[in-house]
Design a protein that fits this description.
113 residues; 0% strand
């Protein structure tokens, strides 16, 4: 069995560290991976902003129903959802879907350009 000198071991360790460092640097600075992460971050941001806009629009539509069509709102609440808060959540969910579908439509149209 051959024994290696300290100099050989140091050289081998340095080479291994440099190789590992270059591999890590390559994966961190890879432009394709960076763009994927950027697109994922943008999509998460859009999801939460669409969720917030959906709740705001849902509450706005609830107030519009309460002001302009109080009997229709009362009938919808008693027939379908059993409480005003469930009606607000229902309207918020519909608005969220509408906002997100609009966002996806705009995204698809931009891809066609």
């Amino acid at each position: 069995m051959e024994r290696k000198t300290e100099k050989d071991l140091l050289r081998q360790a340095t080479r291994n560290v440099q190789k590992a460092h270059s591999n890590v640097f390559k994966t961190v600075t890879d432009p394709v991976r960076f763009l994927k992460q950027k697109n994922m971050a943008r999509e998460v941001l859009w999801f939460f902003s669409a969720l917030a806009m959906g709740f705001l629009m849902g509450y706005l539509f609830y107030e519009i129903f309460s002001t302009w069509l109080p009997e229709a709102k009362k009938d919808l609440v008693t027939l379908l959802l059993q409480s005003d808060s469930n009606f607000i959540y229902f309207l918020a969910a519909i608005c969220f879907v509408g906002v997100y579908v609009t966002r996806l439509t705009i995204w698809a149209l931009n891809l066609l350009r």
